[in-house]
Write a structure and sequence with these properties.
Length: 249
C-alpha cells in the first residue's frame, strides 16, 4: 500500500533512539523528508546516516522553551511546510511519590506535556494555513491506567491523551488530524534495566498477555499510517499498543 508520504515533511521528536528512531527511519523509507530532533547530536547523526539522505537533524532540548520554539520555524526554513508532527520525546522519572522532589515531576510535565503542546500549537497553525496536516502524540499505557511509582509520568501521559482528544475536535474542520499512540512494554534503551535482568524481564513479561515485550518496529506501521494522508478521517483516537496488557482485569 502506498501511504502517500513521498516528499511530505515530518518532524519527529526524541528521534535519536528507540521508538523515535524507528519511526524516523520508517518515514524516510516511505519517502518523507524527516526532521529528527533530540538532545544528542551524535546519536541523531547515527540515525540520519541510515536515512538515505532523507533525514536532517536539529539538536533540541524539550525542557528548554526557547529550544522548542525554534523547531517549527527551522523546519519551515528548510522545507517550506510541515505535514506531520510526531511528539515522541519524553522522560519517565520513577520513585516513591511521597519522597519525590516536586521539581522531578514538574520536569516531567514540562517535557511530556508543555513541549508537545507548544509544538502542536506551532505546527498546527502552519497546517491550518496550508490546508491540513497530521499530529501524532506518543503517550503511554500509563496515560490510560496510572501506575505506582510513576505518578508524574502517568499524570503527564494522561494529559497527552486528553490534549489529543481536545485538539482533534477543535481542528477537525481545518483538516488537521490529531491522534495518539499509547505504547506498552517495548524493547528500548529506556527499558534496559528490565531487559538486562532475567528476573525483572520475567516479571514484566508475566503481565503481558502476548507473552513478550514488543520490538520498536511494531509501532512503525501505525505511526506511518497516522501521519499519512490516508488517515484523513481518523482523529481523536487513542491506539493502545501493549500486547493486551491494558485489557486485563
Amino acid at each position: 500500500m502506498d501511504l502517500q508520504l513521498r516528499d511530505t515533511v515530518v518532524l519527529v521528536t526524541g528521534a535519536s533512539r528507540g521508538l523515535g528512531a524507528a519511526m524516523a527511519l520508517a518515514l524516510a523509507a516511505e519517502g518523507a523528508h524527516v526532521v529528527a530532533t533530540a538532545r544528542s547530536t551524535a546519536s541523531l547523526a547515527a540515525v540520519a546516516a541510515q536515512g538515505g539522505g532523507r533525514i536532517s537533524v536539529i539538536a533540541a532540548d524539550m525542557a528548554d522553551d526557547s529550544s522548542v520554539v525554534a523547531l517549527v520555524p527551522e523546519v519551515l526554513a528548510r522545507h517550506g511546510r510541515i505535514d506531520g508532527l510526531i511528539n515522541n520525546a519524553g522522560i519517565a522519572p520513577a520513585g516513591k511519590f511521597v519522597d519525590q522532589d516536586p521539581q522531578i515531576w514538574k520536569d516531567a510535565l514540562q517535557v511530556n506535556v508543555v513541549a508537545p503542546m507548544m509544538l502542536a500549537q506551532a505546527a498546527g497553525a502552519v497546517m491550518i494555513a496550508q490546508g491540513g496536516g497530521r499530529i501524532v502524540n506518543i503517550a503511554s499505557t500509563t496515560g490510560v491506567r496510572g501506575k505506582p511509582y510513576l505518578v508524574g509520568y502517568s499524570t503527564s501521559k494522561g494529559a497527552v491523551v486528553r490534549m489529543t482528544e481536545a485538539l482533534a475536535a477543535e481542528w477537525a474542520a481545518k483538516n488537521v488530524q490529531v491522534n495518539c499512540i499509547a505504547p506498552g512494554a517495548f524493547i528500548t534503551e529506556a527499558q534496559k534495566a528490565v531487559t538486562d535482568s532475567p528476573e525483572l524481564l520475567a516479571k514484566r513479561i508475566a503481565k503481558i498477555p502476548a507473552g513478550r515485550m514488543a520490538d520498536p518496529s511494531e509501532i512503525v506501521p501505525l505511526a506511518c499510517l497516522l501521519v499519512s494522508p490516508l488517515s484523513s478521517f481518523t482523529s481523536g483516537a487513542i491506539f493502545v499498543v501493549d500486547g493486551g496488557e491494558s485489557g486485563k482485569l
